[in-house]
Design a protein that fits this description.
By secondary structure, the chain is α/β, with parallel strands linked by helices. The protein contains 2 helices and 6 strands; from the N terminus they run βαβββββα. A 6-stranded mixed beta sheet has the order 2-3-1-4-5-6, with helices on one face.
Length: about 150
């Protein structure tokens, strides 16, 4: 099983990104589940979504506490939420930011980190906040060496 946790803010496509990964896995004949977890539903509030992909049926129905991949849609959450909590030692990390890992204060983080920027023309939040759920899915696929969905 490959558990994924996606962090972002309401309106950035966090839930959509998890659902896109789910659909890609199902299209490949794999088992998958995706679901969100958030407090008050409002634009800009912290949101987390979970996705699991497996070759076997998935029986667990709880939040991902030990992710093999963490996607961070909004780097400002680095100082508000413990996005790396429970992350496995060899987990992938994808951060949507124009800053280097050193500038983000993550210079000592594992080598499997891929800064990714959705860039001009990519999906952005109506208030000029980062978006790009689809762009993050694509970058995650490239980072992990997956095809249409993340592979183990």
């Amino acid at each position: 099983m490959f558990p994924i946790r996606i962090h972002g803010r309401g309106g950035q496509g966090v839930v959509t990104a998890a659902e896109l990964l789910l659909m890609a896995a199902l299209d490949e004949g794999r088992h998958a589940q995706a679901f969100p977890s958030f407090g008050p539903e409002r634009t800009g509030a912290p949101v987390v979504a979970f996705c699991r992909i497996s070759d076997q049926p998935i029986r667990v129905r709880e939040p991902v506490v030990a992710p093999d991949a963490v996607v961070l849609q909004d780097a400002t959450l680095l100082h508000q939420v413990d996005v790396f909590q429970g992350m496995t030692a060899d987990a992938y990390v994808l951060i949507n930011s124009t800053h280097t890992l050193g500038e983000l204060g993550l210079g000592s983080l594992a080598t499997r980190v891929a800064p990714q920027y959705s860039g001009p023309g990519a999906a952005t939040h109506p208030r000029d906040r980062p978006g790009g759920g689809g762009a993050s899915c694509g970058a995650g696929t490239a980072t992990t060496g997956g095809s249409a969905c993340v592979r183990q």
